Amino acid sequence: MKVFWLCFFFALASHDAIIALSTNCQLRETKHGSVCVCNSSHCDYLEQPLLKDNSQIVVISSSKNGLRFKRTDGSFLEKTMLEVQDRQSIDENFIADSIVVEQNRAWLQFANIPQKFVLNANIKTVELTVNRDKRYQDITNFGGALTGSVSHILQQLPAELQNHIYKSYFHSEGIAYNSIRMSIGGSDFDLQPWAYNEEPRNDPLLSNFTTLDARDLQKIKQLQRLKSVCELNELKIMAAAWSAPTWMKSNDRWTGFGQLKPEYYQSWAKYHLRFLELMQSKNMPVWAISTGNEPLNGVIGFFFVHFMSMGWTPWQQAIWLNDYLGPTIRNSTQSQVLIFGNDDQRYTYPSWFRKMRSSRPNALNYLDGLAVHWYWDEIFGPHLIDEAHAEMPNKMILNTESCIGDKPWQTHGPELGSWGRGESYMRAYMQDLQHNVNGWLDWNLVLDEQGGPNYVHNYVDSPVIVNTTSRSEFYKQPIYYAIGHFSKFLPEKSVRIETRTNETDSLAQLSVVGFQRPDDSVALILYNGENLPLDLALSDSQRGGFKLRLPARSWHSVIYK
Ligand SMILES: *[C@@H]1O[C@H](CO)[C@@H](O)[C@H](O)[C@H]1NC(C)=O
Ligand SMILES: *[C@@H]1O[C@H](CO)[C@@H](O)[C@H](O)[C@H]1NC(C)=O
Ligand SMILES: *[C@@H]1O[C@H](CO)[C@@H](O)[C@H](O)[C@H]1NC(C)=O
Ligand SMILES: *[C@@H]1O[C@H](CO)[C@@H](O)[C@H](O)[C@H]1NC(C)=O
């Protein structure tokens, strides 16, 4: 394998920096692209760009050709084009890997000719207008899931390597996550299915659920360490149950067509409350729960889902929420915990909530937010989210699960280094944030080389893959940087502002979403999805204009005051 050392970062010489200055990506070519390699003594970090004055522009870029969070500095005072240099322009031997013939742009690129000789034929210019006066939703949280599988992998790693995983995700010099999702009992990414009070059976008082499980205690230790190495005061923990203990269910099994028996509706509400109280007693309070992971798996999805799940129809769930869970939580020491509904695929929006309302008109009053999973988003459009938002404008919307590799036509496991998978994430985050979504919790923070461990061999990809053979390296994939272009630069309370381009949507080469951050600076996330560079003519309602050249197949976070 060829190893490149070509991610140059121009770090600000800040004397205030708490940990080391920005460090380079150790780029390694892999079967499907390239990854950044971290070991106990080296991992790539980028200091948060600090803006000195109103004219400064900072562009942070990643590209298919190997940029990873590369920093480029510019100014509104310079009228010349600011160009983000892609990796090929510093690598003499870079060979263009594609042939692109664009009729309307008279632009031609031949295979096997160094890129520097064929650039510039006729690069398209896109005009981008940023209007700070038009404001939309704000950002609440970004994060990933600490599943049983993730916890198991972390536990096997030397302390320093574990710390680099925490810092890569949760430190401000990593991608600044502020949130984590975890299961109440087991989930589909665990070493086996499990719940509290599996024994004794038929025990509505949950007499044996008086402490957390050893697996929870391990996760809590990991979270304590994570918070301390990342200097994180607040961590928004979002919890959801996958299944009740089997004796509470109609089919007495972990999976298949099975629902909660009505005589246990109150016990199941108490089960949630007890988890929240026990987490609080360990000084790890939970920020939000959902009404249960993917309720349709146990009603219609059981033909192809073989992991822990429990079915609900919206009508039944409204009864449980309105008559049991809602009152139990709100009339408890855990009354501040937020409750999210649905926690299932986009295609159930917004009809799921209408059906809930039809069975218990006030049930939705107990919901602070709506949780949605991304898996079928390429088929079911974002208008479903917009409709839900229009009907329930005061409820937060979070995407609470995403990963690639679950579909029959996909590789079930990592495609190490795949830029295409990174682009799927880039498109998905971009689209949701353009449509009223307040934050996103990705699925497993890390997985092993196979995309597990997983008790039903349901292997998928993850932004970070750990080498569980050597236990001395992990690999940050393009997916990690795709998410990071949002999470790192959009702190809580950033507000989306209007951005418009002069491209027609269906043929757009550039995708963009913009935010005003709590310190009033602007962060734009830009995505050039074609094998062509792109010129951007930006004009901001307050700051004026500047021109920027973006390389082919690239992502950018543009920051200015
Ligand atoms: C860790 O990675 C750095 C950068 O690639 C390398 O110089 C160092 O030798 C590696 N350390 C170990 C223990 O492999
Ligand atoms: C309580 O649960 C534990 C497992 O967590 C089990 O070993 C024990 O037998 C249970 N107690 C009773 C009385 O069923
Ligand atoms: C709240 O709890 C108190 C004491 O446990 C009880 O008396 C009261 O009826 C409960 N209120 C509701 C709305 O459930
Ligand atoms: C994991 O490390 C081993 C030992 O260094 C190496 O042979 C293997 O190729 C690594 N796996 C990956 C996916 O790079």
Model description:
This protein is α/β, with parallel strands linked by helices and 561 residues long. Residues 1-18 and 89-112 have low confidence and may be disordered. It has 2 domains: 52-89 and 125-136 and 496-560, Sandwich (Immunoglobulin-like), CATH 2.60.40.1180; 140-191 and 215-489, Glycosidases (TIM Barrel). 21% of the residues lie in helices and 26% in strands. The strands form 4 sheets. A 10-stranded mixed beta sheet has the order 5-4-26-23-22-21-9-24-25-6, covered by helices on one side. Strands 10-11-12-13-14-15-16-17 form an 8-stranded parallel beta barrel. Helix 9 (419-434) runs parallel beside helix 10. Bound molecules: 2-acetamido-2-deoxy-beta-D-glucopyranose (4 copies). Residues 327, 331 line the site of one 2-acetamido-2-deoxy-beta-D-glucopyranose.
